[in-house]
Amino acid sequence: MSEAMDFKVIGTRPIRPDGVDKVTGRASFGADFSLPGMLEGAVLRSPHAHARIKSIKTDAALAAPGVKAVVTGADFPQVAAGAIEGGEGGGDFADLAGNVIARGKVRYHGHAVAAVAAQSRAQALAALALIEVEYEPLPAVLSLDAALAESAPLIDEGLMTSGLPEPATAPSNLASVIEMGNGDLEAGFAEAALIIERRYQTPTVHQGYIEPHACVGRWGQDDQAMLWCCTQGAFDVRSMTAKVLGQPVGSLKVIPSEIGGGFGGKTTVYLEPLALQLSKKSGRPVRMVMTREEVFRATGPASAATIDLRMGFSQDGKITAAEATMAYEAGAFPGSPVGPGTMCVFAPYRIANFRIKGMDVLVNKPKAAAYRAPGAPQALFATESAMDEAAEKLGIDPIELRLRNAVEEGDSAIYGPKFGPIGLRACLEAAAAHPHYTKAKDAGVGRGVAVGFWFNVGLQSSAEVHINEDGTVTVIEGNPDIGGSRASMALMAAETLGVPYESVRVVVADTETAGFSNVTGGSRVTFATGMAVVEASKDIIAQCCSRAASLWSTDEDMVEWRDGAVHPRPGVNVEATPLSLKDLAGQAGRMGGPLLGKASLNARGAGPGFSVNLCDALVDQETGQVQVKAFTAIQDAGKAIHPSYVEGQLQGGAVQGIGWALNEEYVYSPEGVMENAGFLDYRIPVASDLPMIDTQIIEVPNPGHPYGVRGVGETPIVAPLAAVANAVSASAGVRMTELPLSPPRVLEALDQA
Amino acid sequence: MQGFAYEAPSSLDALRARLAAAQGAGELTQVLAGGTDLLVQMKQGQRAPGLILDIKRVGETQALTVDGESLTIGASVPAAKAKAFPLVAEAFPGLAHAIDLIGSSQIQGRASLGGNLCNASPAGDTIPALIANGFEAQILTAGGLRTLPVEAFVTGVGKNALASGEVLLALKAPVPGPRSGDAYQRFTPRTEMDIAVVGVGARLTLDDAGVIASARIALGAVAPQAFLAEAAGAALVGTRGEPEALEAAAAAAMAAAKPISDKRGSADFRRRICGVLVKRVVAQALERCTTGGAK
Fold first, then answer.
1. In chain A, what residues touch B186 (CB-CB under 8 Å)?
2. Looking at beta carbons, which residues of chain B come within 8 Å of A126?
3. Is A128 helix (H, G, I), strand (E, B) or coil?
4. Are residues A663 and B190, on separate chains, in Cβ contact within 8 Å?
5. Among A389, A614, B35, B100, which one is least packed by beta carbons within 10 Å?
């Protein structure tokens, strides 16, 4: 791409195409769909955090009024182990199937044990109470320490640790170990003038999407099935559900609804296979909708983590060595995001000597799901807290300290590849110059700085561009619109084709209408699906040029596309008026048929995203309560296609990160029952808890995308944890290393200061 | 949620008769005012009444009047209406603030003070403010009316003093005289949409010389029910609210508090916050004695 592009519509802020339906309530979400004769499904969930299922009796439930079908683990095939590709959460199909419905054992409180379909929800709930399950309770493993203890109860008796230098000889709760390193660690520490060594801890948190999981499943007598559901990826729902049910992928059609938030938590399946199996048994469509309590008890969460960090610094602030031992809770099945955590933990910095160890650890809690930059917020909370403490102890400005170590284009990332153009330095410089940073702090206020990082991914995407007979444009793609992507796709199509934004309509289609696309996740859609839309638009342009050349009886290389029309190239001696999309589409019936452009690709070159956050916080010294007084999020977007939605991502990520830092946590009873499974006691921030989140978009174009885009959706949640904790530590006068910074914890720290 | 019958009597007599009939027939009856607690509890399966008696059409429960020396707030008056009532806003700013903490604006359009009191949550926001202000509960009985101070009306977690067949009709308090002020503050991790970890209400009245002549301190969320911390009030009487007096009041309140440890805070944390809030609330009420209060 050229350095200075002259955009017509990219970078403007038009109204989103899906906006009116969403603000008027007409948009259709997961629970809104219904079919004639539809039954309502409900799930019986485990009352134990860990227990063996000795028997399940369903006769009474099946005989209850209105009940048409009951399913248990016995109704589902055994699924062979195999890696789930292309998702953000990753994991294994066998574990996925085991999480959808328990077989033999329940591994967490809330684990699905059976499901019922009845004519009404009340009947379904009444029938659940008639299912008799005999359990043999087992001791629950509820913390990393308990899970890794010598004689810990085994959650999966067959689990052998992978990734060890020597194969494991006995099962344990340690699913896998990841190790990487470079240089001479001890020499690096020997060189250090200052060593920061601390343990950092973060709690289990939930993505907190406002829309609970919901779906309608309909199984046909010809074994062709349909699913309507809210998801971040209809194709992923299709492959996962087909695998859990032992069906061919082609027999299942998935129609995504609008989505009320996901943040990674809707990249997997919970209800969908149950609804279809109930539909198969009953011969009727089945709707299943989770309550908020079920969402907390059985979906999400993001892993709790314990990170032991050791970082060495020279007197002038250069990192001489860094070591991290990172343990993440996987929940009841392997698959925490400790892998990306290990890759992110030191990613923003040039470090010659480092060693990183990651551990994926089973505990009797819900199976962890992807949450916005999975694994990175926990990791960077540790590193950026240590950087802040080092800056304080070395007497170096915290932004300056980071500038002295920041990675730049051409550096090798600690996880391998060489960085292309990246925006870390530009973000740090913008932060140093920002009025938030240069203005004096109010009395008692602490100011925190932190850096955020996320890789961003590419993966597979498809798009079709249809030119209608009046020249209007329909874009068909397969990624549910979770953050304004319809608007971004329309802007990129309009820019490429040279038509007004308003003439482009973007359709998020089902799995039999759109070409295959990986999940809406990894901050990949504006980048990768956007690239497919641009390429499909270029396909249209090529066809238009070909048709015009033929009409003008000249060669294709004698014409060019400019301002939304085919023109003879300057100097080409053809008597012709330019032909617009409208002209050519109107004549399609005489000129080779409908104009249909398409592209399918496996996008490479996703540019990594860096951010810098600034936070001012005030601690009430008597109560430990924290007030966030000011917050600024600065991030490299490559190129902001629709700046308002980029700003929205920055603000939303900041708010989620502030919640993670201040009050969000799963509170468990000693028996492993979550005690705060509702939004009253699981405290995401409310509007009055927050200052206006100020934003600044930095644009260091990504050469891997035709318009310079790099993903922006996930990086925003990475820096806030440490930005808040650093501000609180400064205001409290004591270093806070364990989240959340709830009033009791801050007060306790103040006592010990 | 189970099916149920719904009736809305339109007079005291009709309400009393229907209650008696329901009692005779053994119907599990639940009184409805705003329903903001009841409907949630029914949806969660915590209550399954056979009969719901809506009292909003009974005129006495909708009263919002100043009669000579007393203020009456009917049991089903919406919170939004009560807090906007001029005398409440002017002479009971602490109570008005407590009312404003109930749920959200939308909830306040339906929720009532009577319901907040009958629900008898230890953390109910208006209860300490009502106790501090000396409100009494006016109760419809089978034979007539009886009254109880609010601190005697709440008897435990979710428990009140209403006998079967009785209904709370209204809340009544003396209109404060000059040099008097009230305040209510609660502690919550969030600024809104939250539930009190500790709530403290206070009503102070000064004599001509500016000395505290009477002080009522009420505590919420630190015992099974909100209660009047008499020793805390007594520690203030005869003082001008000097720092030592505030410390003494806080210490008395902390000694009277019997908090539990739960997901919302440990007992120690609650007791400590209780002391902090008592000092802050008393200071605010004291300021209102000179700047606010009834004219």
1. none
2. none
3. helix
4. yes
5. B100
CB contact under 8 A, A676 and B195: no
CB contact under 8 A, B189 and A743: yes
Distances (CA, A) of B98 to B133, B219, B226: 12, 13, 14
Q: Are B74 and B63 in contact (CB under 8 A)?
A: yes
Put simply, the chain A residues between 601 and 660 with a CB less than 8 A from any chain B CB are 622-623, 625
Q: Which of B191, B263, B276 sits opposite A688 (nearest CB)?
A: B191
Quick one: B185 and B99 in the same domain?
Answer: no
Q: What percent of chain B has pLDDT over 70?
A: 98
Instruction: State CA A92 to chain mean position distance.
Output: 18
Amino acid (1-letter code) at residue A643: P
Residue-wise pLDDT for A674-690, tens only, equals 999 999 999 999 999 99
Chain A segment 676-715 residues within 8 A of B by beta carbon are 676, 679-681, 683, 685-689
Evaluate if residue B272 carries a pLDDT over 50.
yes
More confident residue, B293 or A328: A328
Q: Which of B155, B174, B193 is the C-terminal boundary of a domain?
A: B174
CB pair distance less than 8 Å for A623 and B1: no
Q: Is B3 on the interface with A (CB under 8 A)?
A: no
**Among candidate residues A559, A580, A603, the one where a domain is terminated:** A603
Instruction: Say whether both B188 and B261 belong to one domain.
Output: yes
- Please report the ipTM that was assigned to this predicted complex: 0.92
DSSP state of B62: G
User: Is B208 touching A (CB cutoff 8 A)?
Assistant: no
Please list, in sequence order, all residues whose beta carbon lies within 8 angstroms of the beta carbon of residue B240, skipping any fewer than 6 positions away.
B210, B211, B212
Q: List pLDDT tens digits, range A127-184.
A: 999 999 999 999 999 999 999 999 999 999 999 999 999 999 999 999 999 999 999 9
- What percent of chain A has pLDDT above 90? 96
Q: Both A587 and A527 in a single domain?
A: yes
Radius of gyration of chain B (CA): 19
CA distance B75 to B113: 6
